[in-house]
Amino acid sequence: MTTLHLPIERACGTPIHRQIYEGLRRAILDGFLRPGQRVLSTRALALELEVSRLPVLSAYDQLLHEGYLEGRVGSGTFVSALLPDDLLGSPLSTAAVARHAPRPPIRTSGEGRLGPFRMSLPALDQFPHALWARLVARHAHALTHAQMAYGDAAGVVALREAIAAHVRAARAVRCEAEQVLIVSGSQAALRLAAAVLLSRGDRVAVEEPSYPGARAALAASGAELVPVPIDDEGISVASLKKRGGRVRAAYVTPSHQYPLGTSMTAARRFALLDWAQQQNAWVLEDDYDSEYRYVSRPLGALQGMDAHQRVIYIGTFSKVLFPALRVGYLVVPPSLWQRFVEAREAFDLFSPTLYQLALAEFLREGHFARHLRRMRPVYLERRDALLTGLARHCGDRVTVHNADAGLHLAALLPAGFDDREVVRRMAIRGLTATALSTCYAGKAARSGLLLGFGGSTGRRLLEATRTLASILSDSG
User: What is the predicted pLDDT for the residue at 109?
Assistant: First the structure.
């Protein structure tokens, strides 16, 4: 059982129950939901979509009647093992049949700073510690000799299958388990991608501003970084085209731009994919914290829109579970698979097996989906507490740029403020923020603070904004 990317348009003329029906039917036909896969209960889906239960019940009844879903007493609702006969004549029949055709088996082989505003830190106080401890202990006790030996460079098969099922349904990623490669996090994923795709002298485009860690990982290949400005629609593809044909790849954060929070528009996404196809270049999509949006449903991944397999999709569990887990993954186009596996094995052979086994069960048994649903209102409350505190105590000193999604927001400072000096003074007072200027590869165009809210309670964030106001008054 997993979450599902199912956009609902309340302003259009199509009834909600029809949108839910069409969305689920399309997810089944396109292979994002697979035969035998459990779907959310009508109550859970209604909560997920923020609609009443009635249209969800209506959509499920129709899908059950038509044979797309089947109910199992005491177990729930599942995608039917055999799809309706009339699908054989649909335009999607070839893709549907291909996805249900037998596939060859997957080959197997043998305390940082925690002060308020800390970036990239989830709510560790809300993590289901007892449940996770039981899963880890269970698998630790049951480790076979084979599991204690050297593992598959690509990762534990059960985890790759669970991740593929999750990102297909929740992020609209087009992939099979055979394309999922386990690494120790998004940083390792970028280092691996750079090693495979880039050579010394190649050029790689990065958003300006962007994540400093990503720039460091990409530059380690010897490639030249090419900053490309972003606007309210995302990375400027027009500016990217002016950089010339030597740009071999582009690193982007389309669902929640790091650090400014912009979401890339559909038009800009298609333009970027067209650029990659025309230039025979690659797009590195870092989907680092897309699960949490506060003004709309989560956006689908750029990779799911890619008809030419030019996107390498990167995900991590650091932001949604806990950073010390050290599990991330890539979804690799089949044409690149062997090169990525060989390069991954050369780095450090394979990822630790025990946490992979526990995480696979955490996903497969629905604990991950439930954790995401439980955390959304927690993070919304913490975000609102931070916004309230900034407005109440710092309103004349900061301008919030974007707080629509993720676990941080960008607060711009007035002209004349040195954001690095402000951050230094904050550290003395026990506040752990990041200076916006550190995210620019070139000259910083804006001065500001990146304020994380995921790892602190609402009360602590309100208190921290009072301290921040005092620091800003002394700095102005």
Answer: 42
